[in-house]
Specification:
Radius of gyration: 19 Å
Shape: globular
Oligomer: single chain
Number of helices: 16
Length: 321
């Protein structure tokens, strides 16, 4: 099972792309996966994340509060602003604008921790930022969504808060509690958790894409351009934040990945629950779910090489001295 999980983690981008392509061009192949399952599947992913976490993982919040504050502030400033600016620049109709904004106002995705690890980045900082961002999301996601969209659409803030607490806070909390009470059991099953998470993510993507295939294909290239730019500009801005605050290379990687990779599965869920009359609002999250896993895998390869080059440079300097 450990080998299977390793294989799925290594080739996650290709697997996700294949699943998405199949669901998009042959939607009947995935129509058996009901969209009503998305919430439960996302809860499984969050619960699995909780099982791998300990209260000590939040220690970075107290030992390095400056890094956490910088990363979390950048997350909830940069991505919503980018989403709003791109939506207005490309003249998205309000359903798609809502979907893009939800992607921007959601916390960083759990996949960011895996990509940071593969990138030889600061994993503890990544986990700390993801944890704090997720805990802040019940308040900040609906607040920011309302701040940016109140003039054009009605935002059901209560529904969003309830959905985030139900889908994110409760499963993660239960996972941490079980890990606290039964650490040996969690240690034994941790090798199969990546397999379960990747499977759940693929099922979410297949469900969302297959049931929205006509809408996705009918939106044209514009929404794809917006989603791709949103993700890539998030990486760039996140890295520049690290440069601005003179972080070392591992922290720059963690901040860039955390900001660029959003919890788009949550954004898709919120689009369906908080904006049921805007069916196209689920499309940006569905596209982002596929794209950021692909770009994240590519970025991990680039960042990993940067880290190796830096290590080699340090070794050479030590030898010369």
């Amino acid at each position: 099972m450990k080998k299977v999980s390793g294989f799925l983690g290594k080739y996650m981008a290709i697997i996700v792309l294949a699943v998405a392509a199949l669901a998009l061009f042959v939607p009947k192949s995935s129509m058996w996966i009901q969209t009503s399952w998305v919430n439960y599947l996302l809860m499984v992913v969050m619960f699995g994340m909780g099982l791998t976490m300990k209260l000590s993982d939040f220690g970075v919040v107290f030992s390095r509060p400056k890094d956490i504050i910088i990363g979390c502030s950048a997350q909830f400033i940069i991505m919503p602003l980018l989403a709003f600016a791109l939506g207005k620049t490309f003249g998205l109709e309000r359903s798609l604008l809502v979907g893009v904004m939800l992607v921007g106002t959601c916390p960083g995705g759990t996949a960011s921790n895996v990509i940071t690890y593969l990138s030889k980045g600061d994993v503890s900082l990544s986990v700390g930022m993801t944890s704090v961002n997720t805990l802040l999301s019940p308040l900040l996601t609906p607040a920011l969504t309302y701040l940016f969209l109140r003039t054009s659409v009605h935002v059901d803030v209560k529904a969003m808060i309830f959905s985030i607490i139900q889908v994110v806070a409760v499963p993660i909390g239960l996972g941490i509690l079980i890990n606290k009470l039964m650490p040996k059991v969690c240690e034994k099953i941790k090798d199969i958790l990546p397999c379960i998470s990747v499977t759940a993510i693929c099922l979410i993507i297949a469900a969302v894409v297959s049931h929205n295939s006509e809408k996705i294909l009918s939106t044209g290239a514009v929404i794809f351009a917006v989603v791709i730019l949103h993700n890539l500009l998030g990486y760039v801005c996140g890295y520049l934040v690290g440069v601005l605050f003179k972080m070392d290379i591992s922290r720059k990687k963690a901040v860039a990945i955390e900001i660029g990779m959003q919890n788009s599965g949550l954004a898709t869920t919120l689009a369906g629950s908080a904006f049921p009359d805007l069916s196209m609002a689920t499309v940006p999250g569905a596209i982002f779910s596929v794209w950021h896993n692909i770009s994240g895998a590519v970025l991990a390869g680039v960042f990993r090489r940067m880290g190796t080059d830096k290590d080699t440079e340090n070794d050479e300097q030590q030898e010369s001295s």
